[in-house]
Amino acid sequence: MSDLILSMIREGTLKPGDKLLPVHQLAEQFGVGRSAVRAMGLIEMRQGEGTYVKKFDPSHLLIPLHSHLLLQQEDLVHLFEVRKIVEVGAVQAAAIKRTKENLKEMEHWIDKGKDVAGDKEDGSSIDFHFHLTIVKASHNPILLELMSHISKMIEKTIHETYHSILYEEQITKNLFYGHLAIYEAIKKQDVESASKAMMNHLIESEKLQSVLRHHKDEYSAI
To answer: CA nearest 198: which of 76, 85, 74?
Structure first.
């Protein structure tokens, strides 16, 4: 049920603030209990007014995010702002504190990324785990905890990129070279270069996601 409503929101059929059927009717329609409807997280009940599609609330970061994933373009912008703060800071710390084991783990994902062109599923998984490995290399448990709270959202955007209608081999090559530049800077313990490489990579990823969302909107409107 939550997946269907999420899909309708993402397609623009439903928008935050739209009124839905009463809880008991939703429960009957989808064959679930009323408590399941209330626990969805995508809807809200307003006393004396009815049931409405809920707006994404960043204060819900401490609950599982898979049911709230980036419903609007604005949420995507906010996510990349957070990524720039967390991941640029993490890569700076990683360039200073990385160990041989950290470098080996990064090399593992770099090597797997060399031959990923054409395999969207592997590509998105490798991309996500490479970024996660960098945060681990910061050896900062608070940074790692912050990353864990937004990891599902990050994983989703990466997955969208690799499964988009814009998918081209050159795009995955550009993403790979971005990872390689980050890795080389961390390996050399060059904090400034690592920071610049990560920021450039995230900016390019954000542009790609923005174009992707725009094309999806146009495609859905046809």
So the answer is: 85
